[in-house]
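Weekly puzzle thread! Below is a chain. First person to post its structure in token form gets bragging rights.
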Amino acid sequence: MLRNGIKPDSASLNGPETRAPRFSLVIPAYNEEKYLPRLLDSVDQARARYRGGADRIEVIVADNGSTDGTAALAHSRSCKIAPEKKRIIAAVRNAGARLAQGELLAFVDADSHIHPETFNAVEQALSDEKIVGGATGIKMERMSLGIAVNFIYMMPMIWLTGMDSGVVFCRRADFETIKGYNEQRLFAEDVDFLLKLKQLAKKRKQRLIRLPRVKAMTSVRKFDRFGDWHYPGLMLRGVFHMLFPKYCMKKFTQKYWYDESR
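Winning reply:
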């Protein structure tokens, strides 16, 4: 039957059309059943606010061999699951990206929760061809003098480089161009990733962008465990590792990023 003189297409005859994802949000996770529900609740709110439609956003939990209920929880919340056994955070992020179908990729840690306007803000930023990608930045779920001093310590580096944390985003084509996250790095892989994006942007006369109006909220579990004043020492070790990645820091790395007891 013709409706208003227009012949219906095959999709409309067979029911609602399934649209390809516009966004793929990748969440690396190892034993995150405590924090993951809070993040997924915030993602649901942001998907509902996304002007392109909630169905255009796929959520991928990259499960790093969790021994708790992380995978079951992700499945119950209709997330795609990308298993990765290699205990290297960069490999886990890459595993999620390999499963992604969206044109735009975003990455966020499982102990965060995102701003309701995140997807709208990221899409608006990436609609500008002069923008290669970037990050939203973060807010801490609690503040103290020690944590505040750490923030002040970090801000000049953020201002100078244009690099931040929180929800990190780029086009999938550019992710593939720079070959994703460097799996040779046991930590600081996010810094390395943004540096590679920044180098790509420089070649193309593009730039990174920060989106501070949609900052992600992150947990302070590292501060709770290691103390509110521990971060400057951590940063010095991180810079050392960035400069000399082959130097053995296994004991420190395992304790801070890969502790099996958490």
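Puzzle host: Confirmed. Bonus trivia for everyone else. The two ends are 61 Å apart (CA to CA).
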